[in-house]
Amino acid sequence: MDVQRKRQVRLFVALGAALLLATGLIYTSFNASSEARQPSELTDAVPGKSYEMFGKVVKGSIEKTEDGIKFQVRDRDGGGEALPVTYSGVVPDPFREGREIVLTGTVENGVFVGERDTLVTKCPSKFSEKKNQ
Amino acid sequence: MTVVWFVLMLVAVGAFVSYPFWGRKSGSRAEDPEIAALEAAREAKYREIRDAEIDRESGKLSEDDFRELEAELKRDAVAILDRLEALRGKES
Amino acid sequence: MIGTRGDRRWVDASRRSVYAFCALMVLSVVIIEHAFLTDDFGFEVVASHSSIETPNFYKFTAMWSSQQGSLLLWAFILGIVASVSLAATRHKLRDLVPWATAVMMGVAVFFTGLMLVGGGVNPFATLDVVPVDGSGLNPLLQHPSMIIHPPMLYIGYVSLTVPFAFAIGALISRRVDAAWVKSTRGFALIAWTFLSIGIILGSRWSYTELGWGGYWAWDPVENASIMPWLITTAYIHSIMVQEKRGMLKVWNVSLIVASFSLALLGTFLVRSGVLQSIHAFGDSTVGPYFLSLIGVVVAGSTWLIVSRLDILRSERRIDSLASREAVFLINNLLLIALCAIVFWGTFFPLISELFTGTRSTLAGPWFDRYTTPVAVVLVLFTGIGPMLSWRRISWAGAKRVFTLPLIAAGIALVLLLIFTDAAESFWALAVFTLAAFTVVALLQETWRAAAARRRGVGGSVPGSIWAVAVRNRRRYGGYTVHLGLVIVLVGIAASSSFETKRDVVLRPGESARVQDYKVTYVKPTATRNDQALIFGAWLGVDRRGEPFARLHPTRQYHQVTDGRPRGIATYFDGEATSEVGLKAGIRSDFWTSVEPSTKDIQRQAKVADARFAAYMRQVVQPAVRKNPALIGPMSEKLAEIQGLATDKIIGVYEEAGHDVPVTIRVIVSPMVTWIWIGAIIAILGALFAAWPSRTRRRPA
Questions:
Q1: Which residues, other chains included, contact C156 with Cβ-Cβ below 8 Å and sequence gap of 6+?
Q2: Comparing A16 with B22, which gets the higher pLDDT?
Q3: Would an 8 Å CB–CB cutoff place A23 in contact with chain C?
Q4: What burial letters (b/e) apply to C469-478, b meaning 16+ CB within 10 Å?
Q5: Cβ(B61)–Cβ(B52) under 8 Å?
C-alpha cells in the first residue's frame, strides 16, 4: 500500500474505534444509570428499580437501627409526603436533620431502602470546599 | 477619602502605563519573527541530532540508520544556518 | 493590538498595563487578607468565613474558601502569570504577543467584572451592621491539605491561560510555528505540576480526614480537575512532536483550547448548582456567566482554528507506526478517550435530561468500569513511548529494546500467579504485569544511556546516570514522571481490587477479626477543646498474635457558630468531623474510624441546657436587670459553670458503666502508600524536567 492509502486506512480505523467507543458509552450509560427523583416523584416507583433519591432530611426523624439508621426525607422545598428511608453503611460527617441528601436505592413496600455506602450529604453553606461520601 | 485614593491610583497607573509615550528610556526591541522562528528551528534540529545520538547509544538505532539520519539532520541544520546568515546579512 | 502594526510603544504600554493589573490585584489581596487577619467583620466575606476564634493561619487561608475570595485569587494568579509571561517575551514574538496580551486581559476583565457586577460576589462588599463575631471557617476546612488544595488547583488552571492566549495570538497573527509553543512550555509544565499537586492533595485529604476511607469518588468536582489534567498531559507530549518534527499543529492548538476550556469548566462546576455533587452549592449567580465565557472561548477558538487550517497543515507525515510520533499520537487519542469517558459520565445527568426528560446519574462503578481499560493501556504506553525512537525503529533495534522488558513482564506475571492471588482481579493483574514491563523499560533506557557515557567518558555508575540525566532534563524528568505515575496506578489497582472493608459493632473489651488482624475496642475517650467535643475509641490491633498498632479514631462535634445561643446540646447541631485512626505501611494500610453513640450524652446535655436556661431566666436575668454592673462577672462565672457541666457530662461517656456499643469501620487496603509515593516521584520528575538547564551542547 502506498503511503496515502495507509493513512486513509489508519484514519478509518481510528474513526471506527471512536464510533465503537461512543456507542458503547451511550448504550451502557443509559442502562447503568439511576433516575434522580425526589420523594414526591417516587410514589409511582417501580419496585426493585434503582433510583437516586434526593431531598431534605425531616427534622427529628433520625433513629438508629440494628445495622444502620432510618430517617425520613421530604422534597427539597419541604412539600409533599415524608418518605421513610432505611440505610446501612457509611454515614457522612455532615449528615443531620434539615440537610439535603442524595441516596441511591430501591423502593420496597413504601420504604426507600438505601444501597450500602451510597449516602451523600450536601454541605449547607453557600460555598465551601467539602467532600463526603 | 476613598475617592482621593481612587483618583491617585488612576493617575499612578495612567502614568506608569503611558510611560513609553513620554519617557526617555527606549522600550523593547522586537526581534524579527522570521529570525526567531529560524532560531527555534535550529535549536530543535540540534535537539533532534542529540536525540538520535542517544538513540544510537541505547541501541535503538543501528549504525547505518543512525548515519543516514544524522546526515539528513545535519543537512537540514546547515540549510537553517544558511538562511539565518542570509537574513542577518540583510539586516546589517 | 495597534502595536502589531509596528509601533512598539503601544506594545510596551500594553505590557505595562498588565504589570499594573498585577499590582492592583496584589493590593486587593493584601487589603482583603488584612481584613481577615484583623477580624474586620465589616467586610461581608470576613464575617461569613472567619471568626475571632479561628486560628490565624486559617484566617489567612479563609479568603479562598469563599466564592468572592476565590475569584479574587484567580484574578491575582492571572495577574502574576500574565506579567511573568510578558516579561519573558518582551523582546520576542512581536506579532503575536499583543494578541496574547489581549486574550489574557480579556479573561482578567471577565473575572474582575464578575466580582464587581456578578451579584453577591464582591469581595469588598461591606455589611451595614457589623457583627461582633463572624460565622467561622467550616471545621472540615481547617486542615493543612484542604487549605493548600484550592490554590494549587487554581495555579494549575490559571497557568493554562498563558499557552492558550499565546496559541490564540499565534493563530490570529498566522505565526503558527514552534516559537509560541517554546515560550509557553514552561507554563504548561507548571500547570500540569500544580494540577497534579492539587489533585493528589485532595485525594489524600479525603483518605485521611473523611470517614469513608476512600481517595476518589468520581464526584463531579473531582472529575472537573482531572479532565484538564488529562488534556494537559496530552498537550505536553504533543508539543514535543511539533517542536521536533513540525507535526500535530492542529492537535496542539486544539488541545490547549480544550485544556483551558476544561479548566474554566472546572472552576465553574465547583460553584454552580448544575450537578448534584457534594461540592456543589445552591444555585449561585455566577454560573451563567461562566458558561457564556466557556461558550465564547470554544466557539471563537474553533472558528480561528478552522480558518487557519491551511497554515496549520504539517510539513511532514508520520513515517511509520513504530515511531515515537505515532505513539504520541495514539497517546493523545487514549488520553482524550479517557477524558471523554469522564466528561460523559460527569455530565450525564444533564445529557439524559436533555434527551429523555428525566435526570439520571451514573455512579462510581460505571466510571471505574470504563476508565480502567484505557488507563491500563496507558500504563503500557508510558513504557513504549520512551523505548521508541523518532521517525522509525528498525526491527533489530526493536528486538534490542523490547526483549528485556517483555521477559520481565512475563516473569512478573508468572510470579504473581504463583505466589499471590492477584489473578482474582483481571485488571489488577494486567496493571501489575504491564507495570513490570514499563518499569524495566524505563530503567533499561536510563542504564544504557549511562553505560554509553561511561564507555566514552568514564565515571561511576551513579555519576554517569546523573550526568546523563542533567544533560537531558526533559527526557529523564519525563521518565521519572512516567515511573511515578506507573507506581500510582499500581497502588490504585492494588488498593481498589484487594481491599477489605468491614463495619463492626463492639462494646468496650470486645474484639473482631479482619483478615489476619484482631481489633479490640479497648476503651472510650471523651475530651473537648475550645471549639468541639471529641469522642473516640482506643483500639488495640494485633496481627497474627503480635501487637501491631494502637489507634485512636475520634469524632469531633463542633460548636454552632451562627450567632445562636450556645448550650451544651448545640455541639451536636454543629458540624461533625472525623479523625481517622490510621497505620500506614508500605505493604498495606490499616484504616479505622469510629461512630460514637452519643444518644445518652445528648439527652443529658439537653437536660442540663434546660436547667441552665431556667436558671438564667429565674435568677440571673432579674439580678442583672437590677444591677447591670453584674453582667461581666456573671458571664464569666456562667461560662465557667457551663464548662464544668460540659466536662461532667462528657465524662459519662468514659465511665465504666457506660457499656454502649459503637460502630467501628475497618479498612485494610494494600499498597495505598504507593499512591502517595508515586505521586511525589512524578511531581519531582516534573520539576526536574522544568528546571532550566545550564549547559547547551552544540554538536560540531
A1: C190, C191, C192, C193, C194, C195, C196, C197, C198, C225, C228, C229, C263
A2: A16
A3: no
A4: bebbbbbbbb
A5: yes
Distance from C-alpha of C401 to C-alpha of C411, rounded to nearest angstrom: 17
A chain contacts of residue C344, beta-carbon cutoff 8 Å: 25, 29
> CB distance from A28 to chain C under 8 Å?
yes
Task: Kindly determine whether residue A36 and residue C66, on different chains, have CB atoms separated by under 8 Å.
Answer: no
pLDDT at position C675:
93
Q: What span, in angstroms and rounded, lies between the C-alpha atoms of C152 and C191?
A: 9
Cα C90 to Cα C9, C11, C87: the distances in Å are 12, 9, 5
Q: What percent of chain A has pLDDT over 90?
A: 0
Cα radius of gyration rounded to whole Å, chain A: 22
Nearest C-alpha neighbor of C562 from the set C239, C251, C131: C131
User: CB distance C24–B13 less than 8 Å?
Assistant: yes
Q: Is the pLDDT reported for residue C469 higher than 60?
A: yes
The predicted complex's ipTM stands at 0.82
User: pLDDT-based confidence at A132, cuts 50/70/90?
Assistant: very low
Mean pLDDT, chain C, integer: 83
Measured between CA atoms, the residue of chain A closest to residue C555 is: A93
d(CA C556, CA C51): 19
Query: Grid coordinates representing C679?
Result: 505521586
pTM, two decimal places = 0.88
Taking an 8 Å cut-off on Cβ atoms, the answer to whether C363 and A34 are in contact is yes
CA C549 to chain centre: 30
Predicted confidence at residue C447, as pLDDT, reads 86
Residue A133 pLDDT greater than 60, yes or no: no
User: pLDDT tens for residues C73-86?
Assistant: 888 999 999 999 88
Quick one: which of C590, C627, C597 has its CA closest to C516?
C590
pLDDT of C506-553, one tens digit each?
Answer: 888 888 888 889 999 888 888 888 788 888 889 999 988 888 889 999
Residues of C in contact with B43 (CB under 8 A): 182
pLDDT category, A131, cuts 50, 70, 90? very low
Interface test with C, best of B8, B21, B28 (most C CBs within 10 A): B28
Out of B17, B53, B69, the one facing C17 most closely (by C-beta) is B17
Tell me the sheet residues that pair with C361: A34
Q: Which residue of C has its CA nearest to A41?
A: C358
Say yes or no to pLDDT of C163 above 90.
yes
Q: Which residues of A touch C222 (CB under 8 A)?
A: 131
Alpha-carbon distance of C545 to C548, in angstroms, equals: 9
Is the CB of B70 inside 8 Å of chain C's CB atoms? no
d(CA C57, CA C79): 24
Burial class from Cβ neighbours inside 10 Å (0-12, 13-18, 19+) for residue C390 reads buried
Give C-chain residues touching A129 at CB under 8 angstroms.
Answer: 65, 141, 146, 149-150, 270, 279
Q: Can you give the pLDDT at residue C80? A: 92
Using the Cβ of C206 and the Cβ atoms of chain A, whether some distance falls under 8 Å is answered with yes
Question: Across the interface, do A104 and C202 touch by the CB < 8 Å criterion?
Answer: no
Pick from C389, C453, C699: which is nearest to B55 by CB? C389
* Angstrom distance (rounded) from CA C76 to CA C157: 13
Helix (H) or strand (E) holding C535: strand C532-543
CB spacing of B21 vs C17 below 8 angstroms = no
Interchain contact B/A (3 or more Cβ pairs less than 8 Å): no
Q: Which residues contact C524 (CB under 8 A, 6 or more apart)?
A: C508, C535, C536, C537, C538, C596, C653, C654, C658, C660, C662
* Residue C3 exposure: Cα atoms within 13 Å on the Cβ side: 26
